[in-house]
Amino acid sequence: MILVFTPAYTQNSSKKQNEDTQNKTPYNLHPDKWSIIIYRPDNSEGMNDVRCWLKLEDAKTGEDVTYTKAKANYEFVADRKKAPIRDTTSISRMFKYTGEAPSYNYKKSYYLSGGMAMHLLLQPGKYKISVYTPKDHAIYVHTENKGDWTSNVFEYDTENPTNVIFVSPTANDNGFYNGGWNIDYKTPSFHKVTKPSI
User: Fold this and answer.
1) Judging by DSSP bridges, how do beta strands 164-171 and 35-40 pair with one another?
2) Of 16, 116, 133, 168, which is least surrounded by CB within 10 A?
3) Each residue's pLDDT tens digit in the chain (198 positions)?
4) Which residues, in sequence order, are bridge partners of residue 127?
5) d(Cα 86, Cα 107) in Å, to the nearest integer?
6) Per residue in 2-29, is it b (16+ CB within 10 Å) or e — as a string?
7) Where are the extended beta strands (E) located within 29-184?
């Protein structure tokens, strides 16, 4: 199933909404041509604590531009689910700004834990998006991969935008984590890329 996401506001109206938020963030939190939401859904408690870090490369030069061509802040999606007026069954509505969920500025590095959504504001261009977890940050989850956890590469063009992409831990055919990440514009497959909740 392919989900289509539509912008909640135009860029001008979203700027006004952003100025009214508590942290006065200058970045656009709404899906539009220049921003993309990278959402990492909840998994098991132990897996939620394993962070994955963003790597953003210029698609033409291969240069790492994670902190030179992008600005990011984040929110915890659970904050949105608690809002009584929100339809939490619709992922397309989950990221429409209504003011209940606070956003936070990253202080040092761009990462995701389970249940977090990164709002990435990009300069115009073509990018390769991936995530990784160094092996010394995954020692509390036992998998067959004893090295760094890496993801596939998602190619993104601001001239042909996708509003939301998903990051999920990979799993084997039996549903056990195997030490990697999957990035896709489709919602995660139940068994193949995330361990089912029991």
Assistant:
1) parallel
2) 16
3) 333 333 332 333 333 333 333 333 333 344 566 789 999 998 888 889 999 999 999 999 999 999 999 999 999 887 665 544 444 445 545 555 444 567 899 999 999 999 999 999 999 999 999 999 999 998 778 888 999 999 999 999 999 888 899 999 998 888 888 999 999 998 887 656 665 554
4) 58, 156
5) 29
6) eeebebbbeeeebeebbeeeeeebebbb
7) 35-40, 52-58, 70-76, 104-105, 111-112, 116-122, 126-133, 149-150, 154-157, 164-171, 177-184
